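pipeline: protein-struct stage 2 | run 1193 | GtrA family protein
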Amino acid sequence: MFRRFLLCSGTAALVNLAAGFLFYGVFGLDGPVTYPLSVAMAFAAGMVVSFVLNRRYTYEASGRSIWVELRDFFGVSIGGLVITTALATLINRSLTELGAEFVPLGTESFAHICAVGLTAIYSFIAHKRISFRKAESHPPSATPARPEPLVSAD
């Protein structure tokens, strides 16, 4: 299952990274405010791809509605977005302050790749336990006993 997750999420990560490079590398959204925004927008593009592929190929049918899965997936992904954006920003700033011109692909792309990779562990566990968890089966309920009146009719 983890291999399928890595394949599906790897495809989503490629979409994420390509979109990020488009935003900060091509469109120039690489400033102190616009770089985190670029990473967040790229994450959203990857999130759509991840939901579709992982729902179809990685996790077994949960027995829950697609809308409930999507809602939970979105919630888990928001956590991933926060983690990815914070890590990418922190790594990028750290590398820039160190004057790390030696980093292949540039500090923005390198930081983004590192952040996406680290977030994958969180994502697999959280999507398995939250987004695509099995529907809870409830035993058939017995007819509840009629409650006793608080005041006696006597």
